[in-house]
């Protein structure tokens, strides 16, 4: 098969050599390891965008989202392998695009997300840096790589799933560590990789490896010599684009079915901008008032023009607003969801139409911009995703009722971190600490000890003195990040003394 030529120069290697299984492909073994992982199963009870509570089965969770990303990624990979000769040659030169590798990466890409969605991720990062004094804090993508390489286990090793290099590389959406960008104020956001962010005085906003996994990140990327620095492997690019497509389209499905997304507000915003875009463009940024229809969309237009001039087009942006207004607002949202067959067919048709459209808009770029990747959306489709994501953000994520709920969730994350960390520091309670947390402390402390032996400078001025502190801190973060939403709430009730069901709520600690 054509696919078998890919990754013959190291991409199929594992850290621990395993006996070959007759008739089984190495990558197929890996994807099954990921799918059978308890970290993967846990995603069924972790928030994707909005909480499932009270919404029945219509809302995606992290597991269903990951399965759909996997399906979209596989479709893109197959399309690339059946493309014209020039595209196939480029794909081969960049290291190949195995459909099973991109499926595995898609299945794994959200393993590191903590309870309560992106807000939980942000709060866990804040408390891990400010309270626990972990320099590289918490980041969901770095946590995913850590799960695959250190926290999960398999029959070959107690530390990590022993996956092939190609699949480990394919989850590295942001192939750098946090501190790699620390203090770099010389470049604007438009000249730095997507995900680094604007405020780099404390390092990159998004990154794919903590200090303890940086060497492994460098090792897996070393088998892709045609991939430039700060660029994803081609298979990772496919997974990343598939994630964007699934998020932009499938989550709209959620918002419509749950009646969170309302016609009147979305129609007013897009319609006003389309009618008065010239007038809005003439305003100073200080004059933009997001409470007034059209102003928030104008702010997004300016934002992408500043950050992504390499692809931004005024004409393409307007065309995308018109397309989304016509198909989503006037088409789908124009008929409120009532749970009937006609409404179900309408939302299914909308989803299928847009998935097909975006999947058909894939570009393979042999020399991508620093803010792009080797596989990306066409200019037209890129603007479509920008507008669809704007609808998510403006009319779902910024809702005050959701904000109230999320603010309560952030308090739970902070409470858990502080509670378990204080417990670890109490010598009189050492024998009663949950065994899983004790084991995690020992393992993380050993990781920092090994890191110090390899590279003392990696731990900064504290050096050896900080090993035990860092081990405790990282173990607490690993422990809490592995909770489901419900488990985080019930365990917080336990540790704050608010629970009246200690035996039930404490199971699995």
What do these coordinates show?
The chain is an all-alpha fold and 509 residues long. It contains 20 helices and 2 strands. 56% of the residues lie in helices and 1% in strands. The chain has a two-stranded antiparallel ribbon. The model has no long low-confidence stretch (mean pLDDT 90). Keywords: Hydrolase. It holds the Pfam family HD_assoc.
* Helix coverage percent: 55-70%
* Cα end-to-end separation: 47 Å
Average pLDDT: 90
Major beta sheet, specifics? 2 strands, antiparallel
Number of helices: 20
**What's the order of the H and E elements?**
HHHHHHHHHHHHHHEEHHHHHH
Residue fraction in strands = under 5%
Strand order of the largest sheet: 1-2
- Tell me the radius of gyration: 23 Å
Structural class, by secondary structure, is mainly alpha
């Amino acid at each position: 098969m054509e696919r078998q030529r890919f990754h013959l120069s190291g991409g199929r290697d594992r850290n621990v050599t395993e006996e070959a299984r007759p008739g089984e492909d190495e990558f197929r073994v890996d994807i099954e390891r990921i799918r059978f992982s308890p970290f993967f199963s846990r995603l069924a009870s972790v928030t994707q965008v909005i909480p499932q509570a009270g919404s029945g089965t219509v809302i995606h969770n992290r597991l269903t989202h990951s399965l759909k990303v996997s399906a979209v990624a596989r479709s893109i990979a197959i399309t690339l392998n059946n493309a014209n000769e020039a595209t196939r040659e480029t794909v081969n030169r960049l290291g190949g695009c195995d459909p099973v590798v991109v499926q595995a990466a898609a299945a794994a890409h959200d393993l590191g997300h903590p309870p309560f969605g992106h807000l939980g991720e942000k709060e866990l990062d804040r408390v891990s840096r400010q309270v626990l004094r972990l320099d590289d804090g918490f980041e969901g993508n770095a946590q995913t790589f850590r799960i695959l390489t250190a926290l999960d286990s398999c029959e070959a090793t107690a530390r990590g799933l022993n996956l092939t290099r190609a699949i480990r590389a394919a989850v590295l959406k942001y192939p750098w560590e946090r501190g790699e960008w620390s203090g770099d104020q010389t470049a604007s956001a438009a000249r730095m990789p997507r995900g680094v962010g604007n405020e780099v005085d404390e390092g990159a906003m998004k990154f794919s490896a903590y200090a303890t996994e940086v060497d492994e990140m460098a090792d897996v990327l070393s088998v892709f010599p045609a991939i430039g620095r700060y660029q994803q492997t081609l298979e990772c690019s496919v997974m990343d684009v598939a994630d964007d497509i699934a998020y932009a389209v499938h989550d709209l499905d959620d918002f419509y079915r749950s009646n969170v997304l309302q016609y009147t507000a979305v129609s007013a915003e897009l319609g006003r901008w389309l009618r008065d875009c010239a007038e809005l463009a003439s305003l100073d940024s200080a004059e933009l008032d997001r409470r007034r229809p059209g102003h928030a969309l104008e702010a997004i237009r300016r934002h992408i023009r500043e950050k992504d001039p390499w692809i931004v087009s005024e004409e393409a942006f307007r065309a995308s607003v018109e397309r989304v207004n016509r198909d989503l607002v006037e088409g789908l949202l124009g008929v409120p969801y009532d749970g009937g067959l006609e409404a179900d067919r309408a939302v299914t048709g909308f989803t299928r139409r847009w998935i097909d459209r975006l999947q058909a808009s894939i570009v393979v770029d042999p020399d991508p911009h620093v803010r792009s990747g080797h596989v990306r959306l066409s200019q037209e489709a890129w603007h479509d995703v920008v507008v669809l994501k704007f609808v998510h953000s403006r009319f779902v994520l910024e809702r005050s009722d959701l904000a109230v709920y999320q603010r309560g969730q952030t308090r739970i994350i902070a409470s858990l971190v502080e509670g378990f960390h204080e417990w670890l520091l109490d010598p009189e309670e050492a024998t009663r600490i949950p065994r899983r947390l004790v084991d995690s402390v020992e393992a993380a402390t050993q990781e920092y000890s090994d890191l110090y032996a390899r590279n003392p400078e990696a731990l900064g001025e504290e050096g050896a003195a900080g090993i035990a502190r860092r081990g405790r801190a990282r173990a607490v973060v690993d422990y809490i990040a592995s909770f489901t939403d419900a488990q985080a709430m019930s365990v917080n009730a336990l540790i704050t003394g608010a629970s009246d069901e200690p035996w039930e709520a404490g199971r699995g600690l």
